[in-house]
Write a structure and sequence with these properties.
- By secondary structure, this protein is mainly α.
- It has one domain: Up-down Bundle (Growth Hormone, Chain: A), CATH 1.20.1250.20.
- The chain is built from 13 helices and no strands.
- Helix 4 packs across helix 9, helix 5 runs antiparallel to helix 6 and helix 9 packs across helix 13.
Amino acid sequence: MEQKATAAGGRGTYIATVLGAALGMAVGFAAIFISTNGVFIPAVLRDFHWGRAQAAQSYAASMLGLALVSPLVGILMDRFGVRRVVLISAIVFASALACMGLQDGHQGWWIALSLVIGMSGAATSVLGYLAILPQWFDRRLGLAIGLAMVGLGVGTIVLPALSQHLIAGFGWRGAYQILAGISLVGAVIAYTLLRERRGHAKASPMRGSGEFATDASISGRLKLFRIVVIFLAAFLASSAALSLGPHLPALLIDRGISAHDAARSASLVGLDSLTELIL
């Protein structure tokens, strides 16, 4: 498919699509809210006199919102197109993120707004931006996804350290609003780079009776078992990494490490993710 770049709109379209997906994920929900959540917790604790568990509820609520709406986001992208859904989602996400700086310490509003952030940020994550790549890539889809995911890795490296500098200079409220602006501008640029190939659908291979028999065989069951094992391993590894994220900077600060160095530790988690993508 990629070899017909000229007929489909030029090689630049393929490059722009990958760059748009990378940029969008670099300033999307996972990079700009999830990876920085732990950096904001110490400042929020001091301001609201909360316990760490109360502040960390924003992380849990946002992930719940993400899980709740992800199937719906997929349906909307199929119906209205990826670019349109991602752009609307990015606007709502940035608005909700900016409103985090308006919080007054009410626990219910804190959780509710975090839930909205997760729900509106779903399409600005991997779910949204990677959905457009199969429209343009076939043989090199894996490479395209890997290159786009580098954007997410870079975002998770840069944004925690940047957030700490913003908190030091403008307070955590101003930092949230500045990050919201960065997210919105990045999403708009990504929108202009992304292109959709409407009506694109991959043909499903015909399956003969022999293939149905194979699915019912021991070989087919072994493949299913391997898939389940891989899924469980990925689930456990992700759970461990995601559970550590919002607490790591606060734990390091408790041990006498400066806030800036604690923020760098969160960036190192992003560096580890980027290294895994490259290797």
